[in-house]
Specification:
Layout: H1 2-60, H2 67-84, H3 87-100, H4 108-120, H5 130-137, H6 141-150
Length: 153
């Protein structure tokens, strides 16, 4: 009986060491994949936010962006977003797309997308609200109140 125990202990230890190594190896692989996906996600979120601010700047300075350029950018963003975006971000993006297909003008749906992107990129408990984000875009309090009354913000 003692002989069996003396044989079993090294075998059990070797199995446990192998399982530990395998677990560590798989965990490292998973973390590497998550980092790569996070980087891709960051890139697509940044493209979306940059496009938003480019459109916002163009509107402020009465400049035009060609519809072709905007559509091309949005298709590229949407393609990458479908691969790398979180479910919540994609859902908000779809809501914004559906809303933007209407004739209504409002910044609220697009800022909801941006706030959700912030949450997904490491600020899940963000205190930044859609309202505070919109308020930061319109510096003049009276202009903000007029836009809010008309539903633009």
């Amino acid at each position: 009986m003692e002989t069996y125990i003396n044989i079993a202990i090294p075998i059990i230890l070797a199995l446990l060491a192998g399982i530990g190594w395998l677990y560590k190896h798989e965990k490292e692989k998973r973390l590497l994949v998550e980092r790569q996906l996070s980087e891709k996600k960051y890139q697509v979120y940044t493209k979306f936010i940059n496009l938003f601010f480019e459109l916002y700047e163009n509107q402020k300075f009465k400049k035009e962006m060609s519809e072709q350029k905007m559509v091309k950018s949005m298709i590229e963003i949407k393609k990458d977003l479908m691969i790398y975006g979180s479910d919540k971000v994609i859902k908000k993006f779809f809501e914004w797309e559906e809303f933007s297909g209407n004739d209504k003008i409002s910044l609220r749906p697009i800022t909801d997308v941006i706030i959700e992107m912030r949450r997904d990129m490491g600020s899940p408990k963000t205190k930044i609200t859609t309202t505070s984000f919109l308020r930061s875009l319109v510096k003049d309090k009276n202009e903000y109140e007029n836009l809010r009354k008309t539903g633009v913000v």
